[in-house]
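User: Hey, quick favor. My workstation is busy. Could you predict this chain's structure for me?
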Amino acid sequence: MFPFKNLLFFLVLLVYIKGHSQLIPETFQKTVDSVISIQPQTYLDLEHILGSHQKDTILMRYLANTAAKKKYLIGQAYALNHLGRRYRNLSEYSKALVLHKEALEVATEANSLEFKVYSLNMQSVVFRRTDAIKSALDYSQEALELAESVKEPSVGIRRSINVSLNNIGNIYRTLEQYDLAIENFQRSLELDEELGNKLGLAINHQNIGECYEAQGKLEEALMHHRTSLAYNEEIDSDRGRIICKYSIAHIYVHEGNPQKGLDLLEPLLPGAKKLGDIEILTALQINIGWTLIYLDRHEEAKTYLLRSIALAHKHNIPSALSEANAYLSSLWIELGDFEKGLNYFKIYKQYDEQISNDRNLRYVTDVITRYDSEKKSSQIQLLAQENELVKLELKKNKTVLLISGIALALLAGIFYILYRQYQLNNEKKVLTLEQSMLRSQMNPHFLFNSLNSIKLYIINNEQKNAVYYLNKFSKLIRKILESSSLKEIPLAEELETVELYMNIENIRFSNEINFVITIDEAVDPHLIKIPSMILQPFLENALWHGLSSKDGEKNIILVVTKEENEYINISITDNGIGREAAEKLKESKVLKRKSVGIDITKERLANFSRDYQNSFNVEMIDLYDDDGIASGTKVVLHLPTV
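Assistant: No problem, here it is.
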């Protein structure tokens, strides 16, 4: 007999499924069926049919799932990107990034250049919103280069070029390079005028206005904001109207008319809450608080600023936290409470230093300059080669078969030259970066010895090993370059880097080193931040002083554990000859190699710990067996997580 509880569960399940299917209107289901039937291949075609539904996450999720089942990859990529945009506007950036990455994979599988470019641009916007400047620039440049590779771009591709230019302009604006930002926005503006894209015109006028405002050119800024507002009114964009009015009010305050600014700002709050864009709502509350300070309405100002800080903390918006704490500092100083003013000022400086990094600025500017230079050089080479090909064809007066054969041979040669030129350019960039940065990150002996080991594989015709270790080596160098401009990186990134380092070093030990990483389940290495490249000197010390002179089994074990009071321990244990024996062996050598890596690391940890209430600690323990004979060394790094 059928059990009653199973029958009850079955009935509840039917109600649940029926209720969720009713969430999708029948008209939309028919629209999706029609779209899948005709399968439009461009963004504009899909936008014409589905544009009014793109902000509805339930409908877009239904479209994504249905398109995936029917193998309509273009429709799936379209839906995933709009889901990502919606989450991005709600400041749920991790979810947005996952969706845009999935959209890129689907677009790649569909071999759709237009949707690949679109997905890359959307990822760039998410990275820019989270102040990941380098990643934002990389994705925008990749999208722009891919879009500009099309000789006769469609309207969709041209719009994507505009988005890439706009993203690069916003990156320059973040780096306070306002003239360069305006230059990119102007290029995008001209293309939008050709396309008649009023939304793009509104966005670019708004961005140019913000750059002029930052430069103190208030009249020019006001003109562009009002032009943007006119376009937003024309296309009936609530979001655009709020941003423009907010910016105009900001200028009123700068011009010495805070009451006029407040009268424009306060009515925007209900619309901003309805819009659901957390960044806009946070910025609006910050600037209402800022305006109220000018009007000496301090209690109200404090309320708005504290609300904005709560929102910014909840949704991880560092720029908003910096700005709000700066205004709170000014408010308390104006009220005469200098202690609170100083406390808020310290918090503001902490976030400000996190956002503004001079080395990051120099690196990004260099990448952009190299990109523009290489692009122009490539265009000149292509034109010269095409011209040479035409001359050769004109000189030939033989049969069609012979001409065709020569043309094919020339084309093959040209593509080979371009490929070799591309490889040489990449090698040149790697060497340039090594000269300027690796001196302070890695021991030169390691670099030369690693390359010699890989070269030995090549000489011995061990191609697979050569390619495998060369990939490992290049990935290690890249990670060192990326982390060198950062004050701190996730523990997961550091562990990946040292694992690459050990893989390379193990070549010279004939792969005798057993290197094991163990992470406690209570530790999430992606959430814990540590200074970059602090583990490598201890591993190097274990290799060359502990294990290089040892016979038999050679082990290095790296263990990450969590302690109470927000601390983690990172221990590195080797079964080498011990410090005392290593020191004696070192004294007996004619050429004594002085190891300064550990001293430098300790000094870096000491300097880094000043930013935390808790301090770092490094402990070195000599290990002995039951007979009192040295059996290795254990290094323990005691690190705070907050």
